[in-house]
């Protein structure tokens, strides 16, 4: 019901699916500087604390005095040694090696091993304290140990705060496929505190920016804010965290397990991003999402799904976030990776979620050769 | 709210928790020889087909023409080579080694590997065709691959038909702990066909009998049937399959994730069964459940939770199912294993679900030394 494929656009009626940001947004309980955003999913209600003081307040309300098992990575453990000592001194702290390449089953089972040794039980609160990798693999471990322990996410990167810590997707990469083994498991609490963003390197900021720009291509309010911004500095981006969280929460509430055709809107730009990431690696996920958003916007324009004026506005936002577009030789062969995307269930076609108009998106489906041809033309500057 | 611990029995009021079988039973849609039993859980509705023709009917309705990935074990693949060829000839068939010792992460990842190679996707139907191990590890793989594929269980053992295939618990054993890593994942369909029971060795029949006797200690109707039976032959036990399924379905519907204090009633006899199984191994799970049910009935009697007449009736049923009670030297030290049970979350006490009266059970909680002392006395014939 929610789907609108390219074929539809070419036939009578041109059915499409549009949502205004207002309709998708979860209600917020606004405080002075901190917001609590509730997520009511079928499996478990959750709450996201956003803003200054989120960490302390969440800690006091949910973690103090509980049996905790903290998963963090080597970078975060070093940067926040004092905080860990102060708040998690009496907890089991499991430090996994940092980096996307460690989001694998070896890391997962090392966490499970330590949970067994620590005699964790179902009421233990697993605290995933770190970026996207810690959140994904730590959340996964929490979902599996004794078929599920309690889970609190404390995301320390911009990407994790605006995107990956919210919504309950957990996973590891396996056999070269991103997130191919995982679970849906909602955290009971997510603490998005801007204090953790101050130590981020530039690359990490850009990484988060990728998901923010993607959200702008789905949500009118965030689009307007990014359009009107003079710079994309950290202070500015911090303010977008609760807006992105509310947008995502609204989507996840309506389609927790990506079965109703709605949640996949969050994959805008991601089919191409994942295809390139698999082939070229090295750059951050967020950069690939920026590239993917630009490529898929151009495809939407060429397919007649998106008007030129709006496409150009999206592209302008992307180019401000990523002034120098990387080069991708052999991009045609990278296109095949898109077939491995989870959305393309058993089809020989490539599904893309693309921008349509301000606050609206569409889903289009292209034969692989057409998609590959588009990528080559865009890379060659012909589109 | 549902819990009634031993302490309660000793204090004023003696709160206890009792359910009649009628209240817990899922509604059945009766056909001529086959029943369809619906399970409405929060996560996913499911349906269990019980009786002659269950396999063919379920196959026609759900599996024919679909993209299938079949998980089975070496025994089942040998015994049902013709059936597999006929019905699953065009499907990917993944044969895992038979036996409880293979319910581990190696087998799990070998299935996931083959799913990747077969390019399975979210709409692929994973068919777990075999006994409890195939169901548990196959169901687990289905829950994890792309965060969940479709799942149909075709249980081929009495144990799997009356118990493990229904209710959505999946798991592997890990680091010496039973089912410590797993998920809740409801199959959309379970096909319990008596045709598969005809090839079972005696040991497997007794294994299923363990869970049937346990259910009798919870459900008045099944208790009456077992009490009145003259022999426990396969034809007789087959008729109990839909009754046991309906009872379990009723429990699972009300407490899918074992969080409401109800589903753990299904662990009657299991705390002691698992403790002994960990120490002594070799015998079948069902035999340990029979032993556990006998031991825990005697404990309930000694604690004053269960009346002598009813306890003796339960013990009589157990002894007809297991005429020769095995011996357990050093049973006192085996008692410690009970602390590892998932029910005993972070407590130094042992929780037991014990028979109370016909169709009623109680939960009691004992300090470890008391529990160990009971086991020793019972083993020594003093209780």
UniProtKB/TrEMBL annotation, chains A, B:
SUPFAM superfamilies: Dehydroquinate synthase-like. GO terms for biological process: aromatic amino acid family biosynthetic process; chorismate biosynthetic process. The keyword Transmembrane helix applies. Keywords: Cobalt, Lyase, Membrane, Metal-binding, NAD, Nucleotide-binding, Transmembrane, Transmembrane helix, Zinc. Its EC number is 4.2.3.4. The chain crosses the membrane at residues 125-146. This is 3-dehydroquinate synthase. It comes from Candidatus Borkfalkia ceftriaxoniphila.
């Amino acid at each position: 019901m929610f789907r609108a494929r390219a074929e539809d656009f070419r036939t009578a009626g041109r059915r499409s699916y549009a949502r205004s940001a207002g309709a998708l947004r979860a209600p917020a309980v606004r405080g002075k500087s901190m917001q609590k955003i509730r997520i009511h999913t079928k499996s478990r209600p959750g709450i996201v604390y956003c803003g200054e003081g989120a960490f302390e307040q969440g800690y006091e309300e949910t973690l103090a005095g509980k049996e905790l098992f903290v998963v963090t990575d080597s970078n975060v453990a070093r940067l926040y040694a004092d905080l860990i000592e102060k708040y998690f001194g009496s907890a089991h702290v499991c430090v996994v090696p940092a980096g996307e390449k460690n989001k694998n089953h070896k890391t997962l089972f090392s966490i499970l091993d330590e949970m067994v040794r620590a005699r964790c039980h179902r009421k233990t609160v697993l605290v995933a304290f770190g970026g996207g990798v810690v959140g994904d693999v730590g959340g996964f471990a929490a979902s599996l140990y004794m078929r599920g322990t309690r889970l609190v996410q404390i995301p320390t990167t911009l990407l994790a705060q605006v995107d990956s810590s919210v919504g309950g997707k957990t996973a590891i990469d396996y056999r070269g496929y991103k997130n191919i083994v995982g679970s849906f498991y909602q955290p009971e609490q997510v603490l998005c505190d801007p204090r953790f963003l101050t130590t981020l390197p530039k690359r990490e900021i850009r990484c988060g920016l990728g998901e923010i720009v993607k959200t702008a291509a789905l949500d009118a309010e965030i689009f307007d804010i990014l359009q009107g911004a003079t710079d994309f500095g950290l202070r500015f981006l911090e303010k977008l965290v609760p807006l992105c969280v509310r947008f995502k929460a609204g989507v996840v509430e309506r389609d927790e397990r990506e079965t109703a055709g709605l949640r996949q809107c969050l994959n805008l730009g991601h089919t191409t991003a994942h295809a390139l990431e698999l082939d070229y690696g090295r750059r951050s996920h967020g950069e690939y999402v920026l590239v993917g958003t630009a490529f898929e916007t151009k495809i939407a324009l060429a397919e007649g799904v998106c008007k030129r004026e709006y496409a150009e506005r999206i592209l302008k936002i992307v180019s401000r976030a990523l002034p120098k577009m990387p080069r991708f030789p052999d991009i045609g062969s990278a296109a095949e990776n898109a077939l491995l995307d989870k959305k393309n269930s058993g089809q020989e076609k490539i599904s893309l979620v693309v921008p349509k108009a301000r606050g609206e998106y569409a889903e289009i489906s292209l034969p692989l050769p057409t998609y590959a041809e588009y990528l080559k033309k865009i890379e060659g500057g012909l589109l």
